[in-house]
Amino acid sequence: MSLGEQNNYYDVLDLTPGASEKEIKDAYLRAKTTYNKDSVALYTLVSPEEREEILEQIEEAYGVLSNNERRKDYDRCHGLLVMDDSHLNEGVANDIVSIDRVPPMEVLTSEDILIPPATDFIENSAFSESSGPSTRMEPVSRESTAAHERARTPQDVQSSQTPVIEPVSAEELAREIEWRGSLLRRIRESRRISVEEMSTATKISKSYLVAIEAENFAKLPAAVFLRGFVTQISKILRLPPERVAPAYLARYYLSRPDQHS
Amino acid sequence: MDGSVKKTLPPFGDPNAGWFPLSDSLVSDKERTSPDSQINPFDLITTPAYRHIKQVWAIGGGKGGIGKSLIASSLAISASRLGNKVIAVDLDLGGANLHTTLGMDLPKHTLSDFFSCRVNSLEGCVIPSGIANLEIISGAHDAVGVANISVSQKARLLEAMLALNADYLIFDLGAGTTFNTVDFFLFSDIGIVTLLPEPTSIENAYRFIRSAYYRFLRQSHRLSEVRHLVDMAMDSNNPLGIRSPSDLFREVNKASPECGINLKLEIGRFRPKLIVNQARTQTDIDIGYSVKTVCKKYFGIEMDYIGYLDYDSAVWQSIRRKRPLMLEFPNSRLVSSLERVSHELIKHYGHQRNDALMGIK
């Protein structure tokens, strides 16, 4: 949000339309801290009236974006990127062929659905050192580090920053029919959501989450619970649950005849 | 940048009347007739044919006592330890003490000798710091009035600095928002603003960012058509009621939508980095994020919050011993966070200097 232009709710919270629920919540808390009555960061730049006004916008934006239904409506009205799954449901009934094969989604033109959220590099590295700060300086000889630094081009440097997580493209997703645990894991990682965060967001224990991603069916609970888990995970990952859950459950039924539906 | 500088006169009155009072004792008659602020010092610089300088960093922040010299000297030591040839330049003209934070005695040759032509070239002022790969151009021993260098002297200095034989130049800027300080800040590839988590420092940091921001826009060739509007925005008592960057954006758009687009582009190029110094609590650390958010809202700029430094009593101890903090307390938490910040800077923002970006031909 900048320079007094008309902002949408995402701009108000400094988010992109693909933001996850957690990102929205974090952004809201950050904005509330920034525009808090006692925030020194406003000193001389933002007047009390402006502060009130901005806070109102923040509340309004969060009120809509934190509610899935209202957010969908808002996105649709404003022509923002959405996983529009309403039309997908219509197709499912006609084309369904078998229990473990659900038809692919239409190819979505918007490619940025699964691009991980932009983060300042510092959030990953420099700020993550609340304990034991001096460990990061490896005892490498200065000369070799220096020569190494120089030899690298900026591109090299950038690409070597974060472990390469292969992003999942929209087409790949649209064609996806199996929704294996490994894919769910890849998507989760590409969105930079840790197992812990996923566990907090879904209230599913970490061991179940790991088992779901590893497709360790023996360790998983009864189908009725598992369906709920997979649905929850899909929602957090902004995937269509009505496609992910049946596909995933189909494999579960195959390996657990006792759980026949 | 097409290189042709349009000298468009604003459509009303005398554009310079009352905007920039000049009390500059060293300004020549020629310059007096054309006010200092009106000349873009970067226009006067010719880039040397062959250069070593990879990047220029500047550390500023408006208020005094917020750690500019400490951070500058620490970044310099840290960059030199990575094998880069570094020259730290004390541009706190009239208040120089970078040499003290580096633990050096009073240097023989300083910038004053360069300005008064007592040395033949700037190389004569470059003196070893006693630390491998690190040299310093000091501002100590200053003649009274050295703080008030003229725009031609400033251009001569910048030009000479570009010709120096080093990988990194690190500018330690003075407090305040004089044109000289701001111009040195804008000359850098990486401009770092430091602040303390307290109202006085934040007030001055905003004032500093504001001065640099408007001066940056003022010097943009793309915005020469609406320069009078930028001039107006610099004084909040202007007739059009331009009080904030968003007011300026509105007026510029009114004058010419094309310039409105250019204004946005130019604003996008202004990306100062932020360091919060003397952080004691998590709230202090969060102030950096809040300042970043507020700056985006108010100025429309993307600031990079590159790190915070802990409050550490090692600092005053090392200053009393007149020894660089980096060498005196190498294992302190503060030193490791300083090292981390400089490593990140080199890793993420290190690139070949591109003068075309700065409006220098």
Give a short synopsis of this structure.
The complex is a heterodimer of chains A (261) and B (361). Chain A has 261 residues and is an all-alpha fold.
List the defining traits of the structure above.
heterodimer; A: 261 residues; mainly alpha; Helix Hairpins; 434 Repressor (Amino-terminal Domain); 14 helices; elongated; B: 361 residues; alpha/beta; Rossmann fold; eight-stranded mixed sheet; 8 strands; globular; disordered N terminus; disordered C terminus
Care to describe what's here?
The complex is a heterodimer of chains A (261) and B (361). Chain A is mainly α and 261 residues long. Chain A has 2 domains: 9-77, Helix Hairpins (Orthogonal Bundle), CATH 1.10.287.110; 86-116 and 165-259, 434 Repressor (Amino-terminal Domain) (Orthogonal Bundle). Chain A is 53% helix and 0% strand. Chain A has helices spanning 9-12, 21-34, 48-65, 68-77, 86-95, 121-124, 142-151, 154-159, 170-175, 181-190, 195-202, 206-214, 223-236, 241-255. Chain B has a domain at 47-195 and 312-358: P-loop containing nucleotide triphosphate hydrolases (Rossmann fold), CATH 3.40.50. Chain B contains 14 helices and 8 strands. Chain B has helices spanning 29-33, 68-81, 98-101, 111-115, 151-162, 179-187, 199-218, 227-233, 245-255, 257-269, 282-299, 314-320, 325-328, 333-349; strands at 55-60, 86-91, 126-131, 134-137, 168-173, 190-195, 273-279, 304-310. Chain B has an 8-stranded mixed sheet with strand order 3-4-2-5-1-6-7-8, with helices on both faces. In chain B, α6 packs across α7 and α7 (199-218) runs antiparallel to α8 (227-233). The model of chain B is unreliable at 1-34 and 352-361 (pLDDT under 50). The interface between A and B is large, with 41 and 51 residues.
